[in-house]
């Protein structure tokens, strides 16, 4: 191996900590790095459970690095994080879409920015604690492969990585279950062995997305009309950033039956309300495509399509509208297709590619 150098992105959690240990045991020259992405010294103080934004990440990751005997640094990525993740998050919500900032962060910050910085300092690879695997296929392309456990599989959030990024990436944790990773951490005496996972968006630890957006733009988002699927006004909403497709709670509409958000119209500032059946569709349009295991999707092939992180997946076929846009047709209806989220196509255990959902078609 000639002591290949790898920079491990350390979030202060158990997964990335064990990733560093596993690579060290495999003979790599390991360097630990935590990304400084918080915008103010006090902005992420409530986040203490291992999120990559929390200031506690530096303390925990630093202690792990000392335990493993590896160099450790904090790299400043505040500007690139604000530009590509926070600003995009705000703009997408203001446009009536529901973004996935972790996917954007993976592509633009953890890989595009951190990989460049790592290569610049002489590293051969970067590594993370994602429950995913990377393989080079017979066609010569690199692809993200499901982890050995569906329970913790994190491949969905990695579909946008490029071939060059995958070429320089290692994901050792994907070969293990979460229980095995915690067991390894306990065996070698890491202080983060039992640290809970962080589930929320790191820069909005209180989960008040609307409040975060209004503070960021320094003005209230205007109220507007709730309308039914025929366009009739049925009430007033408190601003489109408070809603997402499929939402039922918090609508405060006395209709006599359960109602759900079926669409958000930023141009007219209207939120469309319908019954549960109105939230189902069998097709969508996705753009900003990234092809992974295949240079181009096969229109005759049946893929497994996921429309959100916790969606188990539904069989589907695709057709190209143009080189950067596809229509995805599901073999059975899916619930709450949400513009701004991502469609990720799987070919068996491998990611074929995916794109950003722009709208559902009926």
Summarize the structure.
Helix content is 24%, strand content 30%.
- For this structure, the quaternary state is single chain
Pick out the low-confidence regions.
42-51
Number of separate strands: 17
* Elements, N to C (H/E): EHEHEHHEEEHEHHEEEEEEEEEE
Assess the beta-strand content as a share of residues.
25-35%
Q: Give the structural class.
A: alpha/beta
Shape: globular
Distance N to C terminus? 54 Å
What's the helical proportion of residues? 10-25%
Main sheet overview: 6 strands, antiparallel, barrel
- With strands numbered from the N-terminus, the spatial order across the biggest sheet is 12-15-14-13-16-17
- Rg calc: 21 Å
Q: Helix tally?
A: 7
Q: Which whole number gives the mean pLDDT?
A: 92
Output the keywords.
30% strand, 362 residues, 24% helix, five-stranded parallel beta sheet, alpha/beta, six-stranded antiparallel beta barrel, globular
Textual characterization of the structure:
- With 362 residues, the protein is an alpha/beta fold.
- The protein is 24% helix and 30% strand.
- Strand 1, helix 1 (14-25) and strand 2 (29-36) form a beta-alpha-beta unit.
- Helix 1 (14-25) runs parallel beside helix 2 (56-68), helix 1 (14-25) packs across helix 6 (178-187) and helix 3 (78-94) runs antiparallel to helix 4 (101-120).
Furnish the topology, listing elements before pairings:
Layout: E1 5-9, H1 14-25, E2 29-36, H2 56-68, E3 72-76, H3 78-94, H4 101-120, E4 125-127, E5 132-136, E6 142-146, H5 163-167, E7 169-170, H6 178-187, H7 209-217, E8 224-228, E9 233-237, E10 260-265, E11 270-274, E12 280-291, E13 303-306, E14 314-322, E15 325-335, E16 342-347, E17 350-361
Parallel strand pairs: 1-2, 1-4, 2-3, 4-7, 8-11
Antiparallel strand pairs: 5-6, 8-9, 10-11, 12-15, 12-17, 13-14, 13-16, 14-15, 16-17
Helix pairs in contact: 1-2, 1-6, 3-4
